[in-house]
Amino acid sequence: EPEVTQTPSHQVTQMGQEVILRCVPISNHLYFYWYRQILGQKVEFLVSFYNNEISEKSEIFDDQFSVERPDGSNFTLKIRSTKLEDSAMYFCASSEARDRVRETQYFGPGTRLLVL
Amino acid sequence: LAKTTQPISMDSYEGQEVNITCSHNNIATNDYITWYQQFPSQGPRFIIQGYKTKVTNEVASLFIPADRKSSTLSLPRVSLSDTAVYYCLVGGLRAGGYQKVTFGIGTKLQVIP
Questions:
Q1: Considering only CB atoms, which chain A residues are within 8 Å of B45?
Q2: Which residues contact A43 (CB under 8 A, 6 or more apart)?
């Protein structure tokens, strides 16, 4: 069964450093998403992406964050200057755009980011 | 987006059927109801999705009454490996064609031997 993959599984970084989290969505999917989950809290939407453009972003997704689809398979989330409060599990998801009525998002296993 | 309310936690013995009900009074006409399962330190895993009436797949059933203001996820004969957090999500397509959903706190299901 096709699945979303994410690398690395764990990342430790110093405050102020840049990090890039990588995702490979399911191959025929067209919509891509990033979410984060701070330990013990709920999953929060960050951004959705389609056709090389951001479709929607949340208040969390400020100027420190950016997303990119650098090639035909990868989808990346960059945090320019990490803060302690960026420590969380980051999930990538993708959906197919199978029809124009509904979508199902499939999530990757996550990258645990720890900012020291 | 429609707000969802579901029990914070539930306990069940192995082998029993578990029903988790979610209320979503403000569900919009084009919203679908989707349930996800999440194990600790893993990504949410899609379980089932429906719009109205009943949907069944190999792992669960989803019951949605005619007014669609609630839904019930039914897990038949749970095992210890079903211990997880279960999320009820209500969302629909945006004009751009992407799906917008919002996660709540979820229901933490503990299966007891």
A1: 107
A2: A35, A36, A37, A91, B38, B44, B87, B103
Question: Of B101 and A107, which is predicted with more confidence?
Answer: A107
Average pLDDT of every residue of chain A: 91
Query: Is residue B92 scored above 80 in pLDDT?
Result: no
Interchain CB distance below 8 Å, A105 and B99: yes
pLDDT at B82: 96
Query: What ranges make up the beta strands (E) of chain B?
Result: 9-13, 18-23, 32-38, 45-50, 53-56, 61-64, 70-75, 84-93, 99-100, 107-112
CB atoms within 10 A of CB B89: 27
ω into residue B113 within 30 of 0, thus cis?
A: no
- A with B: how many residue pairs have Cβ under 8 Å apart? 74
Which of B32-46, B50-64, B91-105 has the weakest average pLDDT? Answer: B91-105
What CA–CA distance (Å, rounded) separates A77 from A21? 5
* Distance from chain centroid for Cα B106: 8
- Quick check: B59 contacting A, CB < 8 Å? no
Residue B23 to residues A56, B38, B102, B104: CA-CA distances in angstroms?
26, 20, 14, 12
- Among A7, A39, A91, A105, the residue to mutate for chain B (most B Cβ within 10 A): A105
Residues A82-102 have a mean pLDDT of 85
Residues paired with B100 in a beta bridge = B92
A110 pLDDT more than 80: yes
- Asked whether the beta carbons of residue B44 and residue A42 sit closer than 8 angstroms, the reply is no
Residues of A in contact with B85 (CB under 8 A): none
